[in-house]
Amino acid sequence: MSKNLWVFIETDEGKAKNVGYELLNPGRAMADKLGEELVAVVLGDNVADVAKDAIAYGADKVILVEGQEYKTYNTDAATYAMVELIGKYEPSIVLYGATNNGRDLGPRVACTVKTGLTADCTGLDIDQETRLLMSTRPTFGGNLMATIACPDHRPQMSTVRPGVFKKRAYDESRTGEVIREDLHIDPAKIRVHLVERVKEVAEAVNLEEADIIVSGGRGLKSAENFKLVQELAEVLGGVVGASRAAVDADWIPHAHQVGQTGKTVAPKIYIAVGISGAIQHLAGMSGSDTIVAINKDPSAPIFGVADYGIVGDLFEVVPALIKEIRAKKGE
Fold first, then answer.
1. Are 318 and 294 spatial neighbours (Cβ–Cβ below 8 Å)?
2. For residues 259 and 216, what is the distance between their CA atoms, to the nearest angstrom?
3. Range of the domain at 119
4. Pairing relation of β-strands 156-160 and 117-121?
5. Rounded to 5 degrees, what are φ and ψ at 263?
6. E strands of 170-234, at which residues?
7. Cα–Cα distance between 16 and 250 in angstroms, integer?
8. Which of 10, 84, 97, 115 is least buried, going by the fewest C-beta atoms within 10 A?
9. pLDDT at 203 over 60
10. How many domains are there within the chain?
11. Are residues 175 and 241 in the same domain?
């Protein structure tokens, strides 16, 4: 009989992606509802510290698989390890972060073990009556939300957007069991090899883990004017985001898009420049700790979620902010 809720903790060169720790938060609540254990699954190379942190963030147990083939993500090695573990332990639920790698791994594992997967979720819960995982995701271009269940196959699987959930408070006093599994794929079965990693490209747009995001919208009027957003992000040490309107206008690549059809983020500071605040955009950033809105329309919906609002012409406000920040930094 399938039991226990698993969270896949994605690692890269010995470090965990935040989304894995974030998923331990709803995972803890759902495991408690089910009366089952919350298990973190960690694949990597020299990642014992990640296992320790997973327990501190709420896991009861950690299944730890270490090896050189897991140092950087490899689709064949990771799929092999997860399929073997699922076959041995039979979890009832497996959650993955909807990162580039999670979106690759989740469907591959689901197809191999012949179960369903709900992709790109923004909400999770357990139905008390059926004890099924209820996964909610945007559909029809973000205009509707669908809640999906997988009643007939196990494990139930979902990929969940980074930034949707906050990490639990780190509790160093928590204890849990670390189960080491020695799993190594036949090298002949690895069909994909990493030849070179260009970090400048791979890490250029890391919205999910950014502490500060400055996003631009339709109010910028042109692609050239995005240099204001880029400069403000630069002086703050932040990352550039964008609304769907700006992306659809080809002012900035889709990788920068925040919202239901883009990335869900929860930085410490989110600055919305020239963004009116359509519900699809708000769904992607309303979990930010502090939201600052700059818009000339005092009735713009963005002010409804903003902690601080500046009603004014962004072409006057943003240069003034940049100048003031540079002065404070002594530049």
1. yes
2. 12
3. 5-197
4. parallel
5. -110, 145
6. 177-180, 212-216
7. 33
8. 84
9. no
10. 2
11. no
Number of residues that this document lists for the chain: 331
Q: Enumerate helices (H) and strands (E) in the chain, giving the number of each.
A: 9, 17
Half-sphere exposure of 265 (CA within 13 A, CB side): 35
Q: Are residues 223 and 154 in the same domain?
A: no
Rounded CA separation 123/127 (Å): 13
Model confidence, pTM: 0.75
Rounded to whole angstroms, how far apart are CA atoms 28 and 279? Answer: 29
Q: How far is CA 244 from the centre of its chain?
A: 18
β-bridge mates for residue 149, sequence order: none
- Give Cβ neighbours of residue 253 (< 8 Å, ≥ 6 apart): 205, 247
* DSSP letter (8 states) at residue 258: B
6-23 pLDDT per residue, tens: 999 999 888 899 999 999
Q: How far is the CA of 174 from the CAs of 35, 53, 58, 171, 271, in angstroms?
A: 18, 10, 8, 6, 36
145-161 confidence digits (pLDDT tens): 889 999 999 999 999 98
Same domain, 145 and 15: yes
d(C-alpha 248, C-alpha 37), whole Å: 44
CA angle 313, 317, 318 (to 5 degrees): 115
- 155 prior amide bond cis, ω within 30: yes
Which of these three, 135, 162, 197, is where a domain ends? 197
The predicted-structure confidence for 80-94, as pLDDT tens digits, reads as follows 999 999 999 999 999
Are the CB atoms for 9 and 27 separated by under 8 Å?
A: no
- Torsion sign, CA atoms 82, 86, 89, 91: positive
